């Protein structure tokens, strides 16, 4: 499968073409307008060319750098130049920013917004958590005034949720990521579809049991019908569905499925390392982790649930508008649409190791085998709760889950404690 994926990526690069875009160490780079004219029907057209081209500034994290010697980078570079070919009145300027920390995407947006608005990007690629924070700080502009592409019918439900916050569209989703179960096909021939079947599996199951946000526990809890907000929007947990999840944890802890060392794992990376090092035959992880590390004996299946019905949590990336220049508002949204178009999205996300955010892109994404697995998974996916909500419900879920897995608390008692442990909004 790995050889097949490498061959597929090479074909993608050849199809995308290449050119002379240069980006290095955060230095802005202007994309020259090619002499050839693209025939892509999705790029916006103009009839009058102004005397001087407008410069659109894009901020990208290092993994999306169009100058990397990787297939995904060359696909993006070709797409940016195609936009220029269709828009000779525009030059695109790319700047690379760290994902987080000082000088990172959010820090730079905050600093520029207050001290140097002219330095703000017109368009920026953001993961959902940073988009949330930036939008709440007033650093982003809504797409609702200028475009309505996310209302088109082929966007997956999780993607609609991904780009929206408080009834406004602050991002056009271009890459998705969902929780799945990865296993070794040489050991497990029939993957489990529900938690009872999972309990019958040999060997440990790796997952970040002590994750402060408790995303695995939340996914299982919500798949059992558990609510995380009441009718007034306040954080809530329910004892009955949470007891179901903790009963599974208790049974897993008394078998070989959930060894004691799981309670020390706080991150997806730790769980994945345990899987790679043969400490576990299965791991609950993100699709991006799997797609970027496929090996011959790795296979993936939807996240098992208490009922066996498909349900999982999703997150991803969006294009966000940060421009303060009214003359660039519409143009920046057109570029975002151009970079979210289905055929391009299918090729780019395949190379990046992410899932597409719209059905029309999924139809041309990856291989037939990957599509047959991924399509039903994304259809059942729902957005990870907001960062504010996770801050409230994550810690009591984490503490209760760890106690059950350590066999220090009974499932029903731990569920009641978690419900009572919710702090106020």
Would you give an account of this structure?
The chain is an alpha/beta fold. It folds into 2 domains: 2-176 and 316-366, Periplasmic binding protein-like II (D-Maltodextrin-Binding Protein, domain 2, 3-Layer(aba) Sandwich), CATH 3.40.190; 178-314 and 382-420, D-Maltodextrin-Binding Protein, domain 2 (3-Layer(aba) Sandwich), CATH 3.40.190. The protein has helices at 2-16, 71-86, 105-115, 128-136, 157-163, 195-199, 215-223, 239-253, 268-276, 287-291, 326-338, 342-352, 359-362, 368-380, 387-405, 411-420, and strands at 29-30, 54-60, 90-96, 123-127, 164-165, 168-169, 172-184, 205-206, 282-286, 298-302, 312-321, 381-383. Strands 1, 2, 3, 4, 7, 8, 9, 10, 11 and 12 form a 10-stranded mixed beta sheet that branches. A two-stranded antiparallel ribbon has the order 5-6. α2 (71-86) links the parallel β2 (54-60) and β3. The radius of gyration is 23 Å and the shape is globular.
Task: Give me the secondary-structure topology.
Layout: H1 2-16, E1 29-30, E2 54-60, H2 71-86, E3 90-96, H3 105-115, E4 123-127, H4 128-136, H5 157-163, E5 164-165, E6 168-169, E7 172-184, H6 195-199, E8 205-206, H7 215-223, H8 239-253, H9 268-276, E9 282-286, H10 287-291, E10 298-302, E11 312-321, H11 326-338, H12 342-352, H13 359-362, H14 368-380, E12 381-383, H15 387-405, H16 411-420
What can be said about this structure in brief?
This protein has 425 residues and is α/β, with parallel strands linked by helices. It is 40% helix and 15% strand. It has 2 domains: 2-176 and 316-366, D-Maltodextrin-Binding Protein, domain 2; 178-314 and 382-420, Periplasmic binding protein-like II (D-Maltodextrin-Binding Protein, domain 2), CATH 3.40.190.
């Amino acid at each position: 499968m790995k050889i097949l994926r490498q061959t597929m990526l090479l074909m993608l690069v050849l199809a995308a073409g290449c050119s002379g875009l240069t980006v290095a160490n955060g230095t802005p780079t202007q994309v020259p307008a090619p002499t050839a004219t693209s025939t892509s029907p999705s790029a916006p057209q103009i009839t009058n060319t102004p005397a001087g081209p407008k410069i659109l500034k894009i901020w990208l994290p290092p993994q999306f750098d169009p100058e990397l010697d990787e297939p995904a980078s060359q696909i993006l570079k070709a797409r940016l130049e195609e936009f220029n070919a269709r828009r000779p009145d525009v030059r695109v300027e790319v700047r690379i920013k760290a994902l987080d920390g000082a000088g990172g995407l959010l820090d730079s947006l905050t600093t520029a917004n207050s001290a140097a608005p002219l330095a703000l990007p017109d368009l920026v690629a953001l993961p959902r958590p940073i988009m949330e924070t930036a939008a709440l700080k007033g650093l982003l502009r809504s797409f609702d005034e200028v475009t309505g592409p996310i209302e088109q019918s082929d966007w997956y439900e999780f993607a609609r949720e991904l780009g929206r916050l408080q009834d406004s569209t602050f991002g056009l989703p271009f890459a998705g990521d969902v929780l799945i179960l990865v296993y070794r096909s040489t050991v497990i021939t029939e993957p489990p579809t529900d938690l009872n079947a999972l309990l019958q599996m040999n060997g440990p199951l790796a997952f970040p049991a002590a994750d402060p946000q408790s995303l695995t526990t939340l996914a299982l809890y919500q798949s059992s019908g558990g609510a995380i907000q009441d009718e007034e929007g306040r954080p809530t947990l329910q004892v009955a569905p949470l007891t179901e999840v903790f009963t599974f944890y208790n049974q897993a802890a008394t078998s070989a499925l959930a060894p004691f060392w799981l309670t020390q794992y706080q991150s997806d990376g730790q769980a994945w390392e345990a899987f790679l090092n043969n400490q576990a035959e299965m791991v609950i992880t993100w699709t991006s982790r799997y797609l970027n590390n496929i090996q011959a004996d790795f296979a993936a299946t939807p996240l098992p649930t208490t009922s066996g019905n498909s349900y999982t949590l999703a997150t991803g990336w969006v294009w966000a508008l940060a421009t303060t220049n009214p003359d660039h508002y519409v143009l920046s949204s057109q570029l975002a649409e151009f970079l979210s178009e289905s055929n391009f999205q299918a090729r780019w996300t395949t190379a990046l190791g992410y899932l597409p955010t719209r059905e029309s892109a999924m139809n041309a994404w990856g291989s037939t085998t990957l599509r047959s697995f991924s399509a039903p998974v994304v259809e059942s996916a729902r957005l990870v709760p907001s960062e504010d909500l996770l801050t409230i419900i994550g810690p009591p879920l984490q503490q209760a889950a760890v106690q059950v897995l350590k066999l220090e608390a009974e499932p029903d008692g731990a569920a009641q404690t978690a419900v009572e442990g919710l702090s106020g909004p």
